[in-house]
Amino acid sequence: MSDDKARIGWIGCGRMGTAMAKRLVVANYDVTVTNRTRSKTDVLGQLGAKVVDNPRDLADCDVIFIMVSADKDLLAVTTGPDGILSGAAAPKVVVDCSTVSSMTSAQVRAALAAKNIDFLASPVSGNPKVVASGKLTLAVSGTRDAFEKVEPYLNELGHGVTYVGDDEVARLVKICHNMFLGIVTQAMAEITVLAERGGIPRSAFLEFINNSVMGSTFSRYKTPAFVNLDFTPTFTPVLLRKDFDLGMAEAKKMSVPMPVSALCTELVVSAIGAGYVDEDFSVLLLEEARSAGLVMTPENIAIDDGLGVKP
After folding, report:
1. Domain span at 48
2. Phi and psi torsions of 133, nearest 5°
3. What is the pTM of this model?
4. Of 120, 239, 249, 292, which sees the most CB atoms within 10 A?
5. Same domain (yes/no): 183, 231
């Protein structure tokens, strides 16, 4: 399955699913897509992807990717009445890029294994703009053999594909990653408020940070939100709290002390309590400013987020 003649199936054509599948379509792979709301497949169909009615119609593909919203959706497209397993044919490998629980992932893995189908958990880090820039990252767990079979396709989806081990461990990687996002964002918020209280424009301070050894792809990417107070959501505080809760539960089970994470969990809870539920989680900046008695205003400056979009 290492050439462009392999048949690829794709389930889930929301904003992320469409952005990811598009990279395979424009790379001239043989891609067939399906989505519960068929109209959401239109963009991919216009680019050359084949469109079918339900996941069962993808069962004769070599590899199937899944990007759906929730645990129940993953169960529906795999073990449901019109799911992958409902037909006579079967794919060789199923790759789930959704963010779902380890319990549901293990349930699907077992159901597929009973039909001799390999299953890879491959949660992703990014959003549609990150996908378009070619900077999506993926953690992958399952058998090494299955990973090597589909690695060329995973590499088309982003620049950072990491095999992390067996079974569901990629799910823990994603949770740890999202906790780190929250911790880094809170730290950025605190130092930015301190700098502004000292009379330094946010744009100047963050330009310095981004050009220093402490700068990162993430700090540069969040700089426009911090400077212009544009909190268009990429990931909400509510979703971030869910991952903190999951991570703290895992830490408790494994007796790992997480004092910084515990504090950040409470700060995210506080932001939600203040009414920030639909905004981007970088709104933690406003909560930090409020705590410091600082009223922030947008600087209204064009800022490069570092995500130059690749074709």
Report:
1. 7-167
2. -80, -10
3. 0.88
4. 120
5. yes
